[in-house]
Amino acid sequence: MLFSVNGNAQLLSNGIITPALGDTNYFMDASNFEGLANKNYGRGLGFPRTDLTNFKFNTAAMEDETIVSEFDGMVVYNTASGKTLAGQGIVTEISPGFYYFSNPGNPGNISNGRWVAIGGSSSKTNITNSETATHTLINNSQIYAVKGTFAATGTSSAVNIPSPDGMKSMYGITIYKSGSGTVYSRDLYSYTLGTAEGNAVTGSQGMSVVYPAGTYDYVLEYLK
Predict the structure, then answer these.
(1) Is the same domain home to 145 and 181?
(2) Contact 171, 146 (CB under 8 A)
């Protein structure tokens, strides 16, 4: 009997793959391509392109122990901008680029895992009016930042600095006037979570300070 089967390979190579790495530290080695005369061949690794704003883990693979690491260290190339899905680890603001899933010491679930950006921009964080994941972790917890403005009346130290969604505590704040070169404070007298109006009091930990009337810029850093 004859059967006709159509299939698509999930892994392609420009050479024959040989299982010859037993009892070594490698699981894959492409260094033999270094000897090719044409230095353009055998030099690139093509990752599957993934939209992390719609990506869902197959957690059944953890339950049947096909995946024993709870996906800790999994690497993808993300093509989308936005936020990861709820229920797929901690919701995280993402943009196109390489990400790895950080989920150490979290046996049996992905709830505390997080997609972390890797690559060329790791030394810089561009803080905008949208939530931005910085390159700072405190005890493995991500520090986020957001830029904004508030208006001071000149008669009250109470100002409006809204709490971003999911914010649990303030890590720091910088108050300045864009273009003036003046930094007014890196502190507040007090900050109240969960409210948008009059939730911040300008000044330092020792005393409140009434700012002159005007509009001020700020960068709020916080934990979720």
Answers:
(1) yes
(2) no
Whether the model clears a pTM of 0.70, i.e. scores above it, the answer is no
Paired sense of beta strands 49-50 and 75-78, if any: parallel
Structural domain harbouring 78: 45-124
Calpha distance 14→1 (Å, rounded)? 33
Distance, CA of 58 to CA of 56 (rounded, Å): 7
**Bridge partner list, 149:** 217
Q: Is residue 5 part of a domain?
A: no
Cβ pair 75, 100 in contact under 8 A = yes
> Could you tell me the end-to-end alpha-carbon distance of the chain, in angstroms, rounded to an integer?
62
Question: Is 159 among the domain residues?
Answer: yes
DSSP state of 31: G
Instruction: Please state the separation of Cα 216 from the chain's center in Å.
Output: 28
* pLDDT single digits (tens) 144-199: 899 999 999 999 999 999 999 889 999 999 999 988 878 888 889 999 987 778 88
Which runs of E-coded beta strand occur in the chain? 49-50, 75-78, 82-83, 93-94, 97-102, 114-117, 132-138, 141-152, 158-159, 169-177, 182-185, 190-191, 200-201, 214-223
- Considering 73, 102, 124, which residue would you say is the last residue of a domain? 124
* The Cα angle at residue 222 between residues 178 and 169, in degrees rounded to 5: 130
Which residue, of 105, 124, 143, is where some domain finishes? Answer: 124
Task: Give the tens place of pLDDT for each residue, 21-32.
Answer: 889 998 888 887
> Is residue 170 one of the residues assigned to a domain?
yes
Beta-bridge mates of residue 199: none
